[in-house]
Known about the structure:
It is built from three helices and six strands; from the N terminus they run H-H-E-E-E-H-E-E-E. By secondary structure, the chain is an alpha+beta fold. The chain has a single domain (28-125), classed as CATH 2.40.50.140. Strands 1-2-3-5-4 form a five-stranded mixed beta barrel.
Amino acid sequence: MKKCATGLFTLAFxxxxxxxxxxxxxxxxxxxxxxxxxxxxxxxxxxEWTNPHVWFYVNIKNPxxxxxNWGFEMGxxxxxxxxxxxxxxxxxxxxxxxxGTVAKNGSNRVNARSVTMAATGQKLGAASSEAETP
Length: 134
């Protein structure tokens, strides 16, 4: 009987661990304001090509001449690859034009809808949790 209880506990714990990423995942509507669409242009400073979402950071020039670093969330790596992305599509220092929606909490975060590489004009969908623009 003791072995059975231990086995059930182990099984329950394993199921909990497997479900952990799903519980930690967030919804678009909880974090971003779909009514606040922005287009920002700047230079890539950092790229995090990881699950569950790819993030990249861009220095954006403010109207007063100062620069602010913004974080842009995209979909998962496999979703981006389905839209033509590779790990090397975007590089540090690339100028990009990003269309997306800003965070509800006022932080410097955007859920990207599309990214245009300024040098080539190539526009790619961001595989984000919000519907992409054509």
